[in-house]
């Protein structure tokens, strides 16, 4: 039921990030350095189907 999911940026979580986007969940991923922002926010409604795999990396 969740609409927003926070998933860590590790390589082991890549498939989980992809599935979250496929299921139209807003994805929050912590940034590698906290200089500019705390999270990247990915909204699948702004991505085309072929962009989801790239966005999950």
Strand content: 15-25%
Largest sheet: 3 strands, mixed
* Major sheet: arrangement of strands: 1-2-3
Number of helices: 2
Mean pLDDT metric: 91
The total number of structural domains is 1
Number of DSSP strand runs: 3
Shape: globular
Low-confidence stretches: none
Cα radius of gyration in angstroms: 11 Å
Distance between the termini: 24 Å
The ordered H/E elements are EHEEH
Structural class: alpha+beta
Helical percent range? Answer: 10-25%
Structure description:
This protein is of the alpha+beta class and 57 residues long. The chain has one domain. 23% of the residues lie in helices and 21% in strands. The chain contains two helices and three strands; from the N terminus they run E-H-E-E-H. Strands 1-2-3 form a three-stranded mixed sheet, covered by helices on one side. A hairpin with an 8-residue loop joins strand 2 (26-30) and strand 3 (39-42). The longest helix has 9 residues, at 14-22. The protein is globular. The chain starts with a strand and ends with a helix. The mean pLDDT is 91.
Helices and strands in order, then pairings?
Layout: E1 4-6, H1 14-22, E2 26-30, E3 39-42, H2 52-55
Parallel strand pairs: 1-2
Antiparallel strand pairs: 2-3
Briefly, what is this?
The protein has 57 residues and is of the alpha+beta class. It is 23% helix and 21% strand.
Task: Give keywords.
57 residues; globular; 23% helix; three-stranded mixed sheet; 2 helices; alpha+beta
């Amino acid at each position: 039921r969740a609409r927003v999911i926070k998933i860590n940026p590790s390589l082991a979580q890549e498939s989980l990030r992809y599935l979250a986007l496929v299921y139209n969940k807003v994805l929050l991923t912590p940034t590698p350095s906290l200089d500019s922002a705390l999270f990247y926010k990915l909204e699948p409604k702004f991505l085309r189907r072929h962009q989801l795999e790239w966005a999950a990396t």
